[in-house]
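Reply to dn_fold:

You asked what the input looked like. This is it:
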Amino acid sequence: MSKLPHPKTVTKQISYRKILRRWLWMTLAVLSLPAWSSPAMAQTPAPSATAAPDAATQSLLAAARSWVAKRQSAPENQFQASVLDPRVTAQPCAQSFQMDTPFPNPETVRVRCTQPAWQVYVRVVAALPPSAGAAPVSSSTPVSPPSPNAAAMAPGNTPLAPPKTRPVVVVNADLMRGTALQESHLSVVEWPESQVNGRVYADVKEVVNQELLRDLRPGMPVRPYDVRPVLLVRRGETVTLSISQGPGVVISAQVEAMQDGKLGDQIRLKNRDSGRIISGVVRGANVVAGL
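and this is what came back:
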């Protein structure tokens, strides 16, 4: 004859079964509920790579274009700006932006905000004058100046007065940043005044011995913000000093440069034989004229 379980043991087993059944019913009820979400739990979809910049980013890019334009004394619409890392989303800034160019490439601008603290790198480049219906230009395709006769005929073949033109210095070939410009690199072409935006050079001599700050393609105009004076004389090098002694009489001597010098700079020179310090004006590569 088997031993009957104690009444308390039977009661505990029944209680456990009730709890287990309740837990199973609650689980099934939760799983059968429709999907729901709250604002706090909703996930924000990742921004599309082709989405337009938000208001904060547009404000940042506009400020960068304006800052570069003021530094280079050029119209703001001559520049295009874009965030270097498209994954970066700018935050609204409660104070004025702080900007600088921390790298040798002047096209990279660092934009900083102090409240809240963040920084974004922006690329600001000069844009070519727009040409209606023009096809994209590759690096190997020369950029031709706008034809002065293109606007001479209105719709209906009505002849108009030819547009006014002005001389513009352009490059003849693909030139890389850091190139010291020489006359063989440059030409002067006539451009319609309506197509010349910003400051340009009209005389090749104005840009000879200047160093390019960015790459230029054939036919592109040279602008003041594209170049800077190149060092023609370096400290410690031997240079030729020419001293005029009257009409047709010039004395030349080899001296040591005591300073770096660009075209037109007045620098100190040293006569190695006598030790005498004299001054001269830089006229060319390792060429100095005595005062």
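The first helix runs from residue 7 to 32.
Hope that clears it up.
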